């Protein structure tokens, strides 16, 4: 299809770039990490959201090349930041099931000269619907090398506790629908608190996503979330802006 050919060309022509959204420590207010979010600046169509092209990349298998490129770019940026700052990269389920997937990630880290401990891979609950051995092998291999894993969009998929029990997650990202928006629901605050308590018992970090107001920041901090992310702190910004955010601390 048209968009597939364009996407192939876009990678070559440098039309894709990675933006970075800070993730802050809610007690110190300092930046701990940045989530890498891909953007496509199309010469005619303007900025395209990942929702418009990630699914195409997944259907065509391009996601493997694209995903390794994104990981490499994110790792290159992170290698320029102070040693205690990490980078989070979203992984598509297709990427994880591809043969040699773990090697692709390790090669990207190696190319960038980034230590594996500074990479956090975000996987969503939906990935695990199949819950197969290739997923377990992928995660075990990378976590053996020191790469961290975060369970993204927590609370929106199925039987998450099983995944937390089975796979080596270090972090849970509570979906932003528990923080704001039309699906906020009647028990959101209590659910966030319960997830945060479970996280602390398990020695995991809990990230509250989608924080847009100071009130929301206060609620999730009181609920026990250790980290926060959202427009209240910053949108995703280009790499040079991320570097400025770090020097302004
Ligand atoms: O930035 P936001 O509009 O930036 O991202 C929208 C969705 O696209 C989110 O679910 C996010 O996880 C996903 N996304 C953003 N960047 C990437 C990426 O580099 N790889 C994958 N697989 N998904 C991404
Ligand atoms: O699925 P994932 O959590 O990776 O999605 C990240 C998406 O969330 C990106 O599209 C990012 O731009 C968006 N996002 C980040 N912070 C906020 C926020 O405070 N409010 C809203 N509505 N979206 C946010
Ligand atoms: Mn994410
Ligand atoms: Na999320």
The strand order across the widest sheet is: 1-2-4-5-6-7-8-9
Mean pLDDT across all residues, rounded? Answer: 93
Number of domains: 1
Quaternary structure: single chain
> Which structural class fits the helix and strand makeup?
alpha/beta
Bound molecules: guanosine-5'-monophosphate, manganese (II) ion, sodium ion
Helical fraction equals: 40-55%
- What is the tally of helical segments? 10
Query: What portion of residues belong to β-strands?
Result: 15-25%
Named at the architecture level, the CATH assignment is Alpha-Beta Barrel
Q: What would the principal axes of the Cα set say about the shape?
A: globular
Q: Write down how many β-strands occur, each being a DSSP E stretch of 2 or more residues.
A: 9
Which superfamily, in CATH terms, is the homologous superfamily?
A: EAL domain
Sequence of secondary-structure elements: HEEEHHEHHEHEHEHEHEH
Biggest beta sheet attributes: 8 strands, mixed, barrel
What does this structure look like?
Residues 1-249 form the EAL domain. It comes from Alteraurantiacibacter aestuarii. This is EAL domain-containing protein. By secondary structure, this protein is of the alpha/beta class. It has a single domain, classed as Alpha-Beta Barrel (TIM Barrel). It is 44% helix and 21% strand. The protein is built from ten helices and nine strands. The chain has helices at 2-13, 50-60, 62-78, 93-97, 101-112, 133-145, 160-166, 188-202, 214-222, 239-247, and strands spanning 16-25, 31-42, 46-48, 86-90, 119-124, 148-154, 171-174, 205-208, 227-228. The chain has an eight-stranded mixed beta barrel with strand order 1-2-4-5-6-7-8-9, surrounded by six helices. Helix 2 (50-60) crosses helix 3, helix 3 runs parallel beside helix 5 (101-112) and helix 5 (101-112) packs parallel to helix 6. The longest helix has 17 residues, at 62-78. The radius of gyration is 18 Å and the shape is globular. The N and C termini lie far apart (46 Å). The site of sodium ion (NA) has 5 residues, from strand 6.
């Amino acid at each position: 299809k048209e968009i597939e050919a364009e996407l192939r060309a876009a990678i070559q022509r440098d039309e894709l770039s990675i933006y970075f959204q800070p993730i802050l420590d809610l007690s110190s207010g300092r930046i701990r990490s940045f989530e890498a979010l891909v953007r496509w600046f199309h010469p005619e169509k303007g900025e395209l959201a990942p929702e418009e092209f990630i699914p195409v990349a997944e259907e065509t298998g391009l996601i493997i090349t694209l995903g390794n490129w994104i990981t490499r770019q994110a790792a290159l940026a992170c290698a320029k930041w102070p040693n205690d700052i990490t980078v989070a990269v979203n992984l598509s389920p297709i990427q994880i099931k591809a043969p040699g997937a773990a090697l692709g990630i390790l090669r990207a880290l190696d190319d960038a000269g980034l230590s594996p401990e500074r990479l956090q891979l975000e996987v969503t609950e939906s990935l695990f619907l199949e819950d197969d051995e290739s997923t377990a092998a992928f995660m075990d291999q990378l976590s053996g090398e020191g790469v961290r894993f975060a369970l993204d969009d927590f609370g929106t998929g199925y039987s998450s506790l099983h995944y937390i029990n089975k796979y080596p997650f270090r972090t849970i990202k509570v979906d932003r629908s528990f923080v704001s928006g039309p699906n906020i629901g009647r028990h959101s605050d209590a659910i966030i608190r319960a997830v945060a308590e479970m996280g602390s018992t398990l020695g995991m970090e809990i990230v509250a996503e989608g924080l847009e107001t100071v009130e929301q920041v206060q609620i999730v901090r009181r609920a026990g979330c250790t980290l926060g992310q959202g427009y209240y702190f910053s949108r995703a910004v280009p790499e040079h802006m991320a570097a400025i955010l770090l020097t302004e601390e």
